[in-house]
Amino acid sequence: MNDVNLAPENKEASPEHGYLMAYDKKEQKAKGVKGIAANGELETLDANEANKDQFIKVDQRGNFFTNFGKNFLYQYNNPGRYSLYNMPKETPVEQAKEKIEAAQEPQNDAVRRELAPTRVHNNHRYNEREINWEQAGNYGITPDVLKNSKDSLERMLQGKSSAVAFHIAKPSELGRESGDAKLSLFRDENGAVKFDIHYIRQAPKIGEDYRGHTLTEDDLKTLNQTGNLGKTVDMVIDYRTKETKPCYLSKDPVTNELFHMPVEQARVPRKVKDYTLSPKEYDAAVRGEEVPIRFKSNNGKYYSTSIQMSAAERGVEFLWERSTKKLEEAQKQGQENGPQQNAPNLKKKADKEGQAAATPKPRVKKATVTPKI
Fold first, then answer.
1. 334: pLDDT strictly greater than 70
2. Contact (CB, 8 A) for 227 and 255
3. Cα–Cα distance between 215 and 79 in angstroms, integer?
4. Measured at the alpha carbon of residue 354, what is the angle toward residues 348 and 359, in degrees to the nearest 5?
5. How far apart are CA 232 and CA 227, in angstroms?
6. Which among 183, 164, 160 is positioned nearest to 311, based on CA atoms?
7. What pLDDT digit, counting tens, does each position of 262-321 carry?
8. Would you say 266 and 259 are in contact if contact means Cβ atoms under 8 Å apart?
9. pLDDT at 157 over 50
10. Closest Cα partner for 101 from 91, 110, 111?
11. Of 37, 188, 222, 323, which one's alpha carbon is 20 to 30 angstroms from that of 249?
């Protein structure tokens, strides 16, 4: 993988280019970002004026990921280690470093608010500090419960629902309302981050209407098999204007909740791990179809599975055990590529590594375990 460097979309230098800084949570210091190395880690430099010209430049008037490269998230292996900041060009580097490091201290809310417009949330939509833990406590959920429940908190910060269902008990007008549900985060009209509850519900039925699309028998069969419709369909995206757009449709295997995502909002990768999609495979992925891939993981082993665009995951999803296709090349286990790894073995390994349970235990119902690769 080549190092990633920012290339402006036009040849004229923008007068509003900022520079990219990162707070390294492991080393607890702010640094300048030079690019992404071949191993998927950020390349950083000491935060000083002498290195400023080597920092990635980002057009502050444009979209960060458009400027930086749409495949950024798929090359960036460790987004949890760093917090990214797009600093205005006129800000001295040493001053930016001081503010970024100060913003990490719990008592410095004013500094965090000042830096909020510069924050690049990589694949996070929310900051853990924004979570209303008092509200969570009313549901019987503590920070430890979420953090010890597989990837639930990480998924929620990314704008997805929790990996598993929890037993929720909350006060209501009728007393205490309870049930099994997944959790997600959302912003209210005032910008506050709150919990959204996704109770387990009855599975959708043939003939049921979802945003103007009538579910067929084939639709439900496909949704139950892979979790995704496997094609795009026109759906109502705004009930006020009745506007319809082509969308992906997915179903949560635990809660049976349906999700939609307009195709125009999706980022379809041309490269997943070290596997580059052919033009034909890329077009199939855009159409929502299942695309088989085979790639080499960071541990040096080869894996075969399929990917598919998922409205529930807000992007590309590894199907693993739900894959209905096999890559032909994967069946030819040449010695040069090493032994083939399969999903069941990966799942056993993931289950074994994740046996440490949270207290109280979340109620997991048919939750899919994503292998760690």
1. no
2. no
3. 37
4. 140
5. 14
6. 160
7. 998 888 888 888 899 999 999 999 999 999 999 887 778 888 899 999 999 888 999 988
8. no
9. yes
10. 111
11. 188
For residue 229, what are the CA distances in angstroms to 87, 232, 306, 308, 328?
Answer: 41, 7, 14, 10, 23
Give residue for tokens 């880690």.
41
Q: Which residues of 79-89 are buried (b: 16+ CB within 10 A; e: fewer)?
A: beebbbbbbee
In this prediction, residue 301 carries a pLDDT of 85
Q: How confident is the model at residue 343 (pLDDT cuts 50, 70, 90)?
A: very low
Residue 211 in contact with residue 237, Cβ under 8 Å? yes
Q: Please state, as a whole number, how many other Cβ atoms lie within 10 Å of the Cβ of residue 269.
A: 20
Q: How many CB atoms lie within 10 A of CB 43?
A: 18
E-strand ranges in the chain read 17-24, 29-36, 42-46, 57-59, 82-87, 119-120, 166-172, 175-187, 193-199, 209-210, 213-214, 233-238, 243-251, 258-262, 271-272, 275-276, 291-296, 302-310, 315-318, 340-341
| Neighbour tally for 27: CB within 10 Å | 10
- End-to-end C-alpha distance for the chain, whole angstroms: 17
Where are the chain's structural domains? 17-120, 131-199+344-373, 202-341
At residue 164, does pLDDT exceed 80?
A: yes
DSSP assignment of 222-272, as one string?
HHHHHSB-SS-EEEEEETTTTEEEEEEEEE-TTT--EEEEEGGG----SEE
Contact 306, 295 (CB under 8 A): no
pLDDT digits 0-9 by tens, 4-51: 333 333 334 434 578 989 998 888 999 998 887 766 677 899 999 999
Q: Reply yes or no on whether the pLDDT at 221 is more than 50.
A: yes
User: Has residue 354 got a pLDDT over 70?
Assistant: no
3-state secondary structure of 147: helix
pLDDT at 227: 94
Q: Give the whole-angstrom CA distance, residue 53 versus residue 32.
A: 10
CA distance 371 to 373: 6
Q: Which pair of structure tokens corresponds to residue 305?
A: 């599975």
**Segment 59-107, tens digit of pLDDT:** 655 445 444 543 444 344 455 677 888 898 899 999 999 999 998 887 8
Strand partners, 22: 31, 84
Distance CA 60, CA 25 (A): 25
